[in-house]
Amino acid sequence: MRPPPKRMPIGTIIGVIIVVIIVIGAIFAVFFFMGLSSHATLKVRVNSEHIYYTVQYELYIDGSLKDSDSLAAGYYVEYTFDLYPGSDCHTYNVYASSTGGGLGAESDSENVYLCAGETKTANLYI
């Protein structure tokens, strides 16, 4: 005959619950202080103004290349970027340039003033 299983002392159970609560609180604090509270969204639409030919384009935000691809005449491509302007707002320079397409090189830019929690859109025509 086996003895009945031993029960975990109530103090141990309370200790485990307290540790779990502390760990969850610490994880939340890390995410909050890492800047997730300063998150903003920038939507960018790159539009082709060309009538007949496909263009090769490059898209930049604040001088950093975000994408390069081809775009058919009359079409557009949309992007969504998660940005972290911090506690202060930030003016982002959004720039697109294209080559080819029969019209030669084209470019367009837009400055977008973006604060934490906001979502804004930039429309570029190349």
Salient structural properties:
126 residues; alpha+beta; four-stranded antiparallel β-sheet; three-stranded mixed β-sheet; 1 helix; 7 strands; elongated
Describe this structure in words.
Strands 3-2-5-6 form a 4-stranded antiparallel β-sheet, with no helix packed on it. The protein starts with 9 loop residues before the first helix and ends with a strand. The chain is elongated, with a radius of gyration of 26 Å. The protein is 19% helix and 46% strand. It has 126 residues and is an alpha+beta fold. The protein has 1 helix and 7 strands; from the N terminus they run αβββββββ. A hairpin with a 2-residue loop joins strand 2 (55-61) and strand 3. It has one helix spanning 10-33; strands spanning 40-47, 55-61, 64-71, 76-83, 90-100, 106-114, 119-125.
Range of strand content: over 45%
Total helical elements: 1
Stretches where pLDDT falls below 50 for ≥5 residues?
none
| Number of beta-strand segments | 7
On the 0 to 100 scale, the average pLDDT is 89
Oligomer: single chain
| Rg result | 26 Å
Percentage of residues assigned to helices: 10-25%
Strands of the widest sheet, in order across it, are 3-2-5-6
Structural class call reads: alpha+beta
Overall 3D shape: elongated
